[in-house]
Amino acid sequence: MSASDASGGVTLSSFSPLPWQHSLWQHFTQVHDSGRLPHAVMLSGPAGLGKHELADAMIARVLCRTVLGKPGAAACGECHGCHMLAAGHHPDLMAIAPQDVGKMIRIDPIREVNRFVSQTAQQGGYRVIRLQPAESMNIASANALLKSLEEPGAKTLFILLSDMPSRVLPTVRSRCQQWPLVIPQSHESLPWLQEQLGDDAQALLRMAGGLPQLAVRLGVSEQRQLRQALRELFDALVRGGEPVAEAWRLERQPLAQVLWYGIAWLEDLIRMGLSGNAGHLRDPSLEPLLRQAVKNGRTQDWFKLLDFAREQRRLLAAGGNPNPQLVLEAWLVRWSALLRS
Ligand SMILES: [Zn+2]
């Protein structure tokens, strides 16, 4: 998605918020109905809380022509504004995102944002700009955006999304009202999740650390296969298998996903090593494997392995392009050394 989307081509993920976003949604409809919308809102929180759905439901409500003054209601879906949104062509909506996942938001699309907010809305209502992820703006882009954030003009709403608000330029952050999303209680998300995942909902929600949309992503068959491959691999390592020889099991698996599981398992392993109990495990079926690992390695060494995995993930997220096979092998060699020590 790029700035060329200004004239259309923005498809919204949802017109309604998700069930666990109820209180934030109520707050939003209240300030919207009373004409007290801020110029800029930053929705933040870890990936998997449904920030996109909430942002898109907010956008739809602001651009809907009939919903104003109906407390708690979502966009009607019937009016001209809603029809334009559903068709992916609303002239008063602009969506900005990096052209490729993991890349930066360059300055050119931000210049288009500045032009966009300097014009009046074509439909006579709000102009809305959705920008995500906000931490993907480089210094030049962020500075260029400041101009519009400082003097946005009437009836302009910026919605910025961020998984990592601490990485957003402080001057940008301070000009946005902060709306952090928090991990919901399981009773807030489980009924919805059971509709998506059936009987596996509870186990997957636990594995996802309470992040409902992440639980959905962990439920797809590719993820099940990856977990199975990882489990077999670690089992082989625990039995003394040669790490480089065993790495074939993860061939063509995305490194970011492999690291995500590795980090989650290591965190669980370390907590179990320190506390001695397994009640917190995100995947209780791994307990025998993790117990064996705890027996074999020293906790301080597991911390080092965790640091290594986190650093590789950080490099990957920063758009660095490490050789995935080499990263994987280096990591497995470290695992294996720990298991044999
Ligand atoms: Zn409508």
| Termini gap | 49 Å
Spatial strand sequence of the major β-sheet: 2-3-4-1-5
The geometry reads as elongated
The name of the CATH architecture of the largest domain is: 3-Layer(aba) Sandwich
- Could you state the oligomeric state of the chains shown? single chain
Helix vs. strand class = alpha/beta
What does the radius of gyration come to? 23 Å
The CATH superfamily title of the largest domain: P-loop containing nucleotide triphosphate hydrolases
Indicate the percent of residues in helices.
40-55%
Unreliably modeled segments: 1-8
Q: What is the H-and-E element order?
A: HEHHEHEHEHEHHHHHHHHH
Bound molecules: zinc ion
Strand content: 5-15%
Q: Which fold name fills CATH's third level, the topology of the largest domain? A: Rossmann fold
Helix count, per DSSP? 15
CATH class of the largest domain: Alpha Beta
List the topology elements.
Layout: H1 22-33, E1 40-44, H2 51-63, H3 80-86, E2 93-96, H4 107-118, E3 127-131, H5 139-150, E4 156-162, H6 170-173, E5 177-180, H7 186-197, H8 201-207, H9 212-218, H10 221-238, H11 243-246, H12 255-275, H13 287-296, H14 299-317, H15 324-340
Parallel strand pairs: 1-4, 1-5, 2-3, 3-4
Helix pairs in contact: 1-2, 4-5, 8-9, 12-13, 12-14, 14-15
The protein binds zinc ion (ZN).
